[in-house]
Each structure stands twice: as C-alpha cells, then as structure tokens.
Design brief:
209 residues; alpha/beta; Rossmann fold; 7 strands; 19% strand
C-alpha cells in the first residue's frame, strides 16, 4: 500500500501526535544527529515536562518511541514511558560521514548539497529512508485512536511528506522544531498534516498552523 492510498480496512479514526525529541547540545548547535546518542539539556527536560502536562488528558491508544536515548527520555518525561513500545523504524537515519556536522559546513565542500536529496557518505540514502517510513506508515494505518510517536527532526519532516504522498525531497518544506507537536490524521478525502508550535513559557499554548 502506498502512503497516499486509503486504508483497506474500516476503522473508527486515527490521529497521530508526532513529538520530536526535545533539545540536545547537538540539536542546539544545528549538527546532524543520527546514530550518536545524547541526553537532553536541562532546557530540553523542561520542555518535555511542560508539553507532557499539556497532552496529559489525551488517552493514547498506542505510544511508540525511537530507541534513541534522547527520544526515549522525552517520552519518559512526558509521563508516557510506562506505556511505550520501541519502534525500530522511528529511529533517526544514519548520516554516515556527515554525523555531527552542520549543513552549512557540508555545503562549503559540496555546493548545493541537500540532506533530503543527496546521499550521505557511508550512511543511508534518501530512498532507503523513504522505504522505511512507508513501511511504518502502512503499519500505523492499521491502528485506531490517538497514537503518540516520539522520534526525530528530519525523520519527522520525511514522515510528514510521505504521509501526504509527497516525495522524500519535498520534506525540505517541513520544519519539525524542538518545541513543536505535529498532528497527522486521515479522512475519507485525504491525509492531513498540521504542526503546532508549543510555548512552555506561555503556559502551554499550542496553535495549529
């Protein structure tokens, strides 16, 4: 089943709440973080607890998290760790030789380089990333209710693009920030994607864009 095809079985409804892991030292500096694992910063922990309070009233039917420590820690601080199941296909991709580097520095060596189009040296290709996300989407569309997903930034951008049937390269138009919550849903006409910036300092306001 392609990501843009409707589910083949009748379900009540499905809504995905996508949470990027909160702030780490490398995400703060704009470095690509794939297989390297980091703890959250103190601010990242505060972000997690604040948004966890805001979504505390949602009865999630499933809670899935990347095995990466930063994503799992975010899930735990949300208060959902006891209900979580590790989903291997939620892991951020392998950046290969570009692990820990910034896009601006890579482009000095490879002008025009784009993370969503160009292969990573000794890492995963955009095609492989898209294939893994398509498998995950196919499984998610067999579920019902509100589903919480804890994962990563650029993975989330590709996930959003594939959810609405766009090629992996179009993920460059999606921004999944460290203080955001993205909601993905499906209706009879088409899939939907919305990103909600969350302001912990403002008492947990989230506005859908």
């Amino acid at each position: 089943m392609r990501p843009d095809e409707p589910p083949t079985t009748a379900r009540v409804w499905l809504r995905l709440f996508y949470f990027r892991h909160r702030e780490t030292l490398w995400s703060l500096s704009g470095r690509h973080i794939g297989v390297t694992d980091f703890l959250l910063t103190v601010h990242g922990e505060t972000q997690s607890r604040a948004l966890g309070l805001w979504v505390g009233g949602i009865a999630f039917s499933h809670v899935l998290t990347s095995a990466r420590l930063r994503a799992h820690a975010t899930c735990e601080l949300f208060g959902l760790g006891g209900h979580a199941r590790v989903e291997p296909d939620l892991a951020e991709w392998n950046y290969g030789d570009y692990e820990g580097r910034r896009s601006v520095d890579i482009r000095e060596e490879r002008p025009g380089w784009d993370i969503f189009r160009d292969c990573r040296l000794n890492g995963e290709s955009p095609f492989a990333i898209g294939e893994g996300i398509d498998r995950l989407i196919a499984r998610l569309r067999t579920m019902d209710g509100d589903v919480a997903l804890f994962s990563h930034s650029r993975f989330g951008a590709v996930f959003g693009a594939r959810w609405i049937g766009l090629p992996v390269f179009e993920a460059r138009h999606f921004e999944v920030g460290p203080e955001s919550m993205s909601v993905l849903s499906w209706n009879l006409d088409h899939p939907k994607f919305a990103s909600s910036p969350f302001d912990a300092a403002a008492g947990g306001r989230a506005q859908t864009q």
